[in-house]
Design brief:
heterodimer; A: about 475 residues; alpha/beta; Amidase signature (AS) enzymes; 11-stranded mixed beta sheet; about 40% helix; about 15% strand; B: about 475 residues; alpha+beta; Arc Repressor Mutant, subunit A; 3 domains; 9-stranded mixed beta sheet; elongated; binds zinc ion
């Protein structure tokens, strides 16, 4: 059952929210015992919400448009219930006194938040191995990572049907784990979903994303989360772009740009093969598919890591032991308090990025790194905009590899960073991008196909993705 | 003294003015003073993870007003930067400020005597939390943080080192406070910290150019302290130079009790704040029409008003300055003229009796209930010879008890001038009869006693006789007696 059907079934009394949610909780608990994708589970809260929905329906009252839909929320999105840990030791006991905008919206529409999902500490990582708490296993192969940083969210949707999860995507953190776990993952246009309450990693690249099993499910949720919020000044005001769900099947004459040359980048042959097969199928179905030149591909990773590290070094400064920290009391000075809390509270990868970012921002280097990266970012964004004057989507793989083994890359940061190669450019330019399952490669591991769209035109990539989702059934991938 | 004359002092100021906006710089919390600690806070000003700043338009407008009032060039494009450093009162680990591109630059403030002070820049930023170490509720050995102050909009004003001595500094500050009060953007209270002033001071031989070092002096909580600190530091630096000592960049703290500056830190090892544009905030892009709209709403500024008072009402510089020191007073003066138009006399009454009555020009004089029409009535009665100056004093002293129309007061108390000459003559004759000794001495040549007689008569008439008239009649009578 697709999740968007749940509210209607409830309304028509064909489904009891309490029954559905208690069954779902059982299913989640069983799956979680195997794959460890949650950091906290709100069973009592979810059942209470379900009961409230049933009561509303019994009284003949209207219920929200997300009524009964179970949500898993990445643990860097602030909620008033439970803890908001960001997968970090320094926030292991942090309870947020306020909720993020997306949480407000889900609750307003009677969506049911089941739990918080595991993640790489402060969303830095591509395997969820950098969570302070525990590893999350890939449901397709438990010896492999689920991807990251939103690995918990991806594994949950992969292991449990009829649910949605939210993640955050700064360089691919929604799309890469979605691809690794064989689910759909959307990173919307920068500024289309409020970041208020999303604990910042890289403010100018972060965007809350949505994972589900089907395009239609993700489109349905996206329409409700894409909302103006005056508290996020980096959002577009007013928000443009049509609703996506209703129009999913309206259009069928997409023009597709393919930067073929970029495929050859330490990319697994199976991934290239799968992508090409889909392209061929699209061509035979009469879609206009054309090659476009690759832009600045050697700079994606440097631009991304320069901007993201610089920003995170500043964004994480607030965790200094005054309000957040490990309550280190045996200190003699402010300096010692800062150093002790931060040294103990942050993990290796976080420290690495803070140090890189601190260096990047140090006096004398402004124009060498951050400003230069921003200039390239603007240039690239402009060039990409040009592509969208002639095309509806750019098609490329989501990741260079399928899910890798635990420990395979955790000691090799540069290899790990390469996971973001195909995804980071949409963050750099702010364009929307979606990954859809595109068959399985070696060892039966899922492959992702990525579509990047014009800004605030998620409807186009949803539309095309929806077609491809259907076509894939006809292809032997 | 001679030593001092061989040196030039260069003083620049760094001012932080808390803007009088309804809400804070980047959140909706109330911007107010004296509330219960940590009662005016939210995720944004507490720097909670996930919260985001949004620029307060009112603060932006107030800053633009100040920029316009000081002839600064408003940058049509500017932005906020993050200044990164760790300190307990800084909830995010960075302060949102403007560094690379401030809101305005190159302003100038003209002081009397053609003295110009140039403004390097004006920019917006947020205040930090307040550390509390002393108050009653603080436990021994603990420091507390009050985040009510965190995020209050600050206007930072940086001047060039155009000031040369303590009185120039004080004049400049008085002037800048006046401008801010006129614009209603800051109440300018140094003692409350709503206006903070750091000094940058250096001293060099007259022949040399501005030195490449400066001493920064902090913790100055009153004009008096600033004056003393400038003098102290000037003297200290000259003495050091005289001894041939090497001077370097320093930050010092004024100790009010000891009356000295003390070293806080020497030569800052170029602390690196790792400034970069705040990615949470869009750039500020202004349009000419927007600035024009703000300009149109601006009040007449003190310097202009003072000039107009001199031209329009024929006032002298001092009176015009005194009357325009405060917008309320200036308005009060002009309002009063609408009821009775004698600018000169009105200025005299307001500056003299009224100021004395109010003790000093305070903000809340209107609350006392003295209306402009009352001043007009007094001026009219004086002008028309209906009352004497003595009675004016009486009216003001009656104001202490009850505020009512001076005309009524005069009528009720029968204070109007005695115009009946025979009545005055009678009183004078009695005075002469009752003071035979003095009369003798006067006639023997002691002319000073005239004032004694006048005083006596005034006492009798309760100030209702005109001094000149009394003097004339007295002279006549004493002459007749001779
Ligand atoms: Zn606040």
């Amino acid at each position: 059952m697709d999740v968007y059907k749940i509210p209607l079934l409830l309304k028509n009394k064909k489904l009891s929210a309490q029954k559905f949610i208690s069954d779902k909780l059982e299913q989640i608990k069983r799956a979680d015992n195997r794959y460890h994708f949650t950091l906290s589970l709100f069973a009592e809260y979810a059942l209470k919400k379900a009961k409230a929905i049933d009561n509303k329906i019994a009284r003949g009252e209207e219920v929200g448009r997300l009524a009964g839909i179970p949500f898993g929320i990445k643990d860097n999105i602030a909620m008033k219930i439970g803890k908001t840990t960001c997968g970090s030791k320094i926030l292991q006991d942090y309870k947020s006194p306020y909720a993020a905008k997306v949480i407000e919206d889900i609750e307003k529409e009677d969506g049911i938040i089941i739990g918080k999902t595991n993640m790489d500490e402060f969303a830095m990582g591509s395997s969820t191995e950098y969570s302070y708490f525990h590893k999350t296993l890939n449901p397709w192969d438990t010896s492999r990572v689920p991807g990251g940083s939103s690995g918990g969210s991806a594994a949950m949707v992969s292991a449990v049907d009829e649910c949605i999860s939210l993640g955050s995507d700064t360089g691919g953190s929604v799309r890469q784990p979605a691809a690794f776990c064989g689910v759909v993952g959307l990173k919307p246009t920068y500024g289309s979903i409020s970041r208020y309450g999303l604990i910042a990693f890289s403010s100018s690249l972060d965007q809350i994303g949505i994972m589900g099993r089907k395009i239609k499910e993700v489109a349905y949720i996206f329409d409700y989360l894409k909302k103006e919020d005056k508290r996020d000044a980096s959002m577009a005001h007013p928000l443009s772009g049509p609703d996506t769900f209703e129009k999913l099947e309206c259009r069928d004459n997409f023009k597709i740009a393919v930067p073929y040359k970029i495929f050859e980048n330490k990319t697994e042959p199976a991934i290239i093969k799968s992508t090409n097969k889909i392209i061929e199928k699209l061509k035979t179905k009469g879609y206009k598919v054309e090659e476009v030149p690759v832009l600045y591909d050697q700079y994606y990773i440097p631009i991304y890591y320069t901007i993201a590290s610089a920003e995170v070094s500043s964004n994480l400064s607030r965790f200094d032991g005054v309000k957040f920290g490990l309550n280190e009391k045996s200190v003699d000075s402010f300096r010692e308090m800062f150093v002790k809390n931060r040294s103990e509270g942050f993990g290796q990868e976080v420290k690495r990025r803070i140090m890189i970012g601190t260096f990047i921002l140090s006096a004398g280097y402004e124009d060498k790194f951050y400003q230069k990266a921003q200039k390239l970012q603007r240039d690239l964004s402009r060039r990409v905009d040009e592509i969208f004057t002639s095309y509806d989507a750019i098609l490329l793989p989501t990741t260079p590899t399928t899910a890798f083994k635990f420990g395979e890359k955790s000691g090799k940061p540069l290899d790990m960073y390469h996971s973001d190669f195909f995804t980071s450019f949409a963050n750099i330019t702010g364009n929307p991008a979606i990954t859809i399952p595109a068959g399985n490669g070696e060892n039966n591991l899922p492959i992702g196909l990525q579509l990047v769209g014009d800004k605030f035109r998620e409807d186009k990539i949803f539309g095309l993705a929806y077609r491809i989702e259907k076509l894939i059934k006809e292809i032997n991938l | 003294m001679k030593t001092k004359n061989r040196y030039t002092t260069y003083i620049g100021l760094e001012l932080h003015a808390q803007l009088l906006t309804k809400s804070k710089m980047f959140c909706g919390c109330k911007n107010s003073f004296g509330e219960k600690p940590n009662s005016q806070t939210c995720p944004v000003c507490l720097g909670l993870p996930g919260s985001l700043p949004v620029v307060n338009r009112e603060a932006l407008n107030q800053a633009i007003k100040f920029g316009l009032a000081t002839d600064s060039n408003i940058n049509m494009n500017s932005w906020f930067d993050r200044k990164n450093y760790f300190y307990p009162d800084l909830p995010k680990g960075y302060q949102i400020t403007q560094f690379a591109k401030p809101l305005a630059q190159g302003g100038v403030i003209e002081l009397s005597g053609n003295n110009k002070v140039h403004l390097q820049e004006i920019h917006l930023e947020e205040d930090s939390a307040r550390s509390v170490h002393y108050e009653d509720y603080v436990k021994e050995g603990y420091s507390y943080l009050d985040f009510n102050r965190s995020g209050i909009p600050l206007l930072e004003i940086v001047t060039e080192p155009d000031l040369c001595n303590s009185s120039e500094v004080v004049n400049f500050l008085k002037h800048i406070i006046k401008i801010m009060q006129y614009l209603k953007i800051c109440n300018g209270k140094l003692q409350d910290g709503s206006l903070r002033c750091d000094l940058n001071i250096s001293v060099g031989k007259n022949s040399d150019s501005v030195p490449d070092w400066k001493v920064e002096v902090k913790n100055l909580n009153s004009l008096k302290a600033i004056k003393k600190a400038v003098k102290f530091e000037e003297k200290r630096l000259i003495e050091m130079l005289e001894k041939g000592m090497y001077l370097e960049q320093q930050t010092r703290k004024w100790d009010e009790k000891k009356g000295v500056t003390e070293l806080l830190r020497s030569k800052e090892k170029d602390y690196d704040y790792r400034y970069f544009p705040d990615p949470d905030l869009p750039q500020i892009n202004l349009e000419e029409t927007y600035i024009k709209e703000i300009e149109d709403l601006m009040p007449e500024l003190p310097a202009k008003k003072q000039k107009r008072f001199m031209e329009e009402y024929g006032l002298d510089t001092d009176s015009a300055e005194l009357l325009t020191r405060n917008q309320k007073i200036a308005d009060f003066f002009e309002e009063s003229l609408k009821f009775y138009n004698n600018p000169d006399l009105t200025a005299r009454i307001i500056i003299g009796d009224f100021f004395a009555f109010m003790n000093e020009v305070s903000e809340d004089f209107c609350k006392k209930g003295i209306k402009p029409v009352f001043i007009a009535e007094i001026v009219e009665m004086l002008d028309k010879n209906m009352i004497s100056n003595k009675i004016v004093k009486k009216i003001f002293s009656h104001f202490q008890e009850k505020i009512l129309s001076p005309k009524e007061m005069v009528k009720n108390n029968n204070w109007n001038i005695i115009n009946d000459n025979s009545q005055i003559k009678k009183i004078i004759e009695n005075t002469i009869i009752n003071n035979p000794e003095e009369v003798k001495r006067y006639q023997a040549g002691n002319q000073n006693l005239m004032n004694f007689f006048i005083g006596k008569v005034m006492q009798k008439t309760q100030g209702r006789a005109k001094g000149e008239k009394v003097k004339r009649i007295l002279k006549e009578l004493l002459k007749e007696m001779n």
